[in-house]
Structure formats: structure tokens, C-alpha cells
Amino acid sequence: MKKILIPTDFSDNAEFALKVAAQIAKKNDAEIILLHMLELPHQAGDAIGSGHIIPELMFFKNAAIKKLEDLMDEDYLDGINVSEIIQFEMAFEGIMKISEKNNVDLIIMGSHGASGFKEMFIGSNAEKVVRNSEVPVLVIKKEQPDFKVADFVFASDFSDEIKKPFEKVVEFANRFDSTLHLVMITTPNNFKSTPVSEEIMRKFAANFTINKFETHIYNETNVEKGILNFADSINADLIGMSTHGRKGLSHFFNGSISEDLVNHSSLPVITFKI
């Protein structure tokens, strides 16, 4: 874990993410890339494309530079290699491009979530990044003065397609000396008996070298509620999920449990792309 990308809009939530990034960077000797996106109206984008930057854009850019420099002077970033990028682009598209261009290992984002019509029709930038990012995305909802991952919940059906992203789950858990709680949520619509569920998890875990782990089966009316209630029952520090990155009509009709958790969980959530 050498490069951590932190998109910031200078909000409190974004700074919560930056503070967590600083803690992770210090423990892993990692670099932080601070990214601020200047989202522009269409006509302003045309002006940039033609090589003419209007004075108003320079004003906003210079103000953003000043805010980034002030952030980089914060005591909690002392001793960390921090670089800054300002991009004229829509937030989601810019985050994806910068992540790929810089070969980042982890994206950390602050989010207050989204709800109701906003969640259905717009969604948060964090939700879009979770849906599309090829690298793990850690979403922070509140300040974490001492970010630790003693108890890390990873919920899954533990099918074969999860094996590849699960390698990164194990790497993350071992790096933080976490107890990895593997949990299978059984619901009325997707019921498996306890012996069957236990056997699936046992065979799955046998493929990996996990320093500390436990297996659990939790019954609930739906998967999202089961994950949240189980995490609460063990006082977990972090929830992990794999995501398919559904898009278009598939996403609209099927949704994504990972994105729902990003919006609704008060705990940090980390996602791993299948």
C-alpha cells in the first residue's frame, strides 16, 4: 500500500477521510495524493478545451490551491509525502482518471451518504466511485481519531468469483492485525442451512492465509440489515464487501448492497471490485 488517493471538497467529511489516510500512511510508509475537482458548467469546460481560461476560473483555482496548501500544513500530515492535484472536471470522472493514472492502491473518501430521492436519482460521489473503482475504496462517515481495525466484518456468499478480490481483503486484514469476521447472511429468500453455510465458508477460507478469522451465520429479513445488525452485535470497526459495479438498467433494478451500505452505515465501509 504505497499510494492513497484522497478526493477533497474541503468539507468536514473529506477531512475525516484525510485524517484516516494520514494514520494509514504513517503505518505503511505510504504517499498521499490530495485531489480537488473543480466542477465547471458546460460552457466553462468549452473555454478550457479551447485553451482560454477565463478569470473566474483562475480565481477558483487559486482559492483551491490556497486551501490545499493550508491542508498540507496540518500537523497530522507531518512526515508524510503529500502531493496535490487540481483538476477541471466532474468529480467522479476525475477521481477515476487520477486513480488509474497514478496507480493508486487505495481511495479514501468522506461521505455523509445520500437518502430518499437524492439517493435514487443522483447518488453520492462516493457511491459512484464504489461502483466503478478497480482499487479498494474506503468510505469514512465520521471522525476517527484512532483508526483501528481490530474487528473487520466481511460479508459474502463466498462463491468462486469472490476469491480474487478476497486476496486484497486478506492483505488488508493481515496488515492491520484484524480479526476477520467472515459472515454469511441467510434470508427467507436465500436460505441455507447452518451445516451447508459452515461448509461453504470453511472451504473458502482454506484457500487463504488469514492470520486471525472467525466464521459466522446471521439470519435476517434482508442482507443489508443483516450486515449492519451483525456488525453492531460484535462492535465492529469496519465493514467490507465485494461489489460487481453494476451500471445502467442493471444497477437501477438490482441495486447494490455495497452502495447501500456506503449510504446507510455509520461505520467505515471498504469495498473490493470483483
First CA to last CA: what distance?
19 Å
The structural class is alpha/beta
- Please summarize the sheet with the most strands: 10 strands, mixed
Count of runs of 4 or more consecutive helical residues: 11
The overall average pLDDT, rounded, is 86
Question: Helix coverage percent of residues?
Answer: 40-55%
Strand order of the largest sheet: 3-2-1-4-5-10-9-6-7-8
Beta-strand segment tally: 10
Described by the principal axes of the CA atoms, the overall outline is elongated
Strand content: 15-25%
**Radius of gyration, taken over Cα atoms and rounded to an integer in Å:** 20 Å
- List low-confidence stretches: 116-123, 248-255
Secondary-structure element order, N to C: EHEHHEHEHHEEHEHEHEHHE
Structure description:
The structure is a single chain. With 274 residues, this protein is an alpha/beta fold. It is 43% helix and 21% strand. The protein contains eleven helices and ten strands. It has helices at 12-28, 42-49, 55-72, 91-101, 116-121, 125-132, 163-175, 194-205, 223-233, 248-254, 257-264, and strands spanning 3-7, 31-37, 82-87, 106-110, 137-140, 151-155, 179-186, 213-219, 238-243, 269-273.
